[in-house]
Amino acid sequence: MRKSRILGVGMYLPERVVTNHELEAMKELETSDEWIRQRTGIEERRYVKEGESGADMAYHASVQAIENAGLTRDDIDFIILGTLSPDYNFPGNGVYLQDKLFGDRTVGALDIRNQCSSFLYGYTVADSLIRTGQFNHILVVGTEIHSTALDFTKRGRDVTVLFGDAASVIVVGPAPEGHQGLLASTLHSEGKYASDLWMEAPASVYHPRITAEMVAEGRHYPKMNGRMVFKHAVTRMVEAANEVLTKSGKTSDDVDLVLLHQANLRINTMAINLLKIPEERTVNTIMWTGNTTAASIPICMCEAIKQGKLKENDLVLAAAFGAGFTWGAALFQW
Predict the structure, then answer these.
(1) Residue 263, φ and ψ in degrees, nearest 5
(2) Given the DSSP bridges, would you call strands 78-82 and 16-19 parallel, antiparallel or unpaired?
(3) Which ranges constitute the DSSP H helices of the chain?
(4) Quick check: 130 and 6 in contact, CB under 8 A?
(5) pTM score, two decimals?
């Protein structure tokens, strides 16, 4: 059975930069640059302009990833797209990306809803499809628009300061002979904590799905139990990372680069310390992107390449944790 390899990566950030100082100027938000930096490490994030869609961002990132892979659009035969913020309630964004990239060529599109863990879930599924020969070149896409769903008042402050808009894409295809590909992966979920990080409304369990009262109460905005999420994120990412190292017979000393989901710089610093991996063997982008959910890890890949930290045949450890709760890790050769 053949193995898979990440052949190319691409990213897209909207033009509008929103600094902490801009949020600080919003009196109803009652926040400050110092407050945000100390708690999250974030200095700025990007917001889409009016009319810019998640599918638009995914298109730009896909074009870049395909070019970086040395392929053409005709080589791509499947899409796996993760987002918690589709452009419409249904259908998912995968079909809109298909239309933008391929037009009349009917490439299959699978939409997944694993929030911050979407990249790892999508990459693991893509690896399986490549290994079995079902497809040859798959786009694994993460695209998020958070800015249009945030509560810019004190009530939503703890969530609002965290998130930014972005898209990223990897191209997964067959690995050459002798390449290790994806050595090991692990995926987990624990739904009993779902309401600790969620957006409650609109919801099909309610009749009607949303009411004026729900809107007045802010139940259509994302909510987070920050302490609970922080604790679980550190614990679960470290557990998952150690699980894939054990599965593959490797140790943290063998890892050339660690890429963690970008939710909070303090979470990542703590996780790296627990894994006993030097800070120079990781990359963080949350300082200038904020939390971009499904898009964050491939953005880190792009930054690592730019910094010269990610080179051919490097052993890479990636881990993520997010709403659901869902989490996972992957160990792969670049």
Answers:
(1) -110, -35
(2) unpaired
(3) 20-24, 33-40, 54-68, 93-102, 118-131, 157-160, 212-216, 226-248, 265-275, 286-289, 296-307
(4) no
(5) 0.97
Identity of the amino acid at 239? E
Quick one: pLDDT band at residue 97, thresholds 50, 70, 90? Answer: very high
- Could you tell me which of 100, 157, 108, 98 has the C-alpha nearest to residue 134? 108
pLDDT of 81 strictly over 90 = yes
- Comparing CA positions, the residue from 74, 77, 109, 115 lying closest to residue 94 is 109
Looking at residue 69, its amino acid is: A
The string of pLDDT tens digits covering residues 233-259 is: 999 999 999 999 999 999 999 999 999
3-state secondary structure of 259: strand
**Which amino acids are annotated catalytic?**
116, 261, 291
Nearest CA to 168 out of 82, 108, 110, 98 is that of: 82
Residue 278 has pLDDT above 90, yes or no: yes
Strand, coil or helix: 329: strand
Over residues 117-141, the pLDDT tens digits come to 999 999 999 999 999 999 999 999 9
> Measured between alpha carbons, how far is 159 from 65 in angstroms, rounded to an integer?
30
CA–CA separation, 117 vs 107, rounded Å? 24
pLDDT of the residue at 1: 82
User: Phi, psi (5° rounding) for residue 74?
Assistant: -65, -20
Helices and strands of the chain, counted as H and E runs: 11, 13
Contact 265, 302 (CB under 8 A): no
Question: In sequence order, what are the residues at sequence separation of 6 or more whose Cβ sits closer than 8 angstroms to the Cβ of residue 233?
Answer: 263, 264, 267, 271, 321, 327
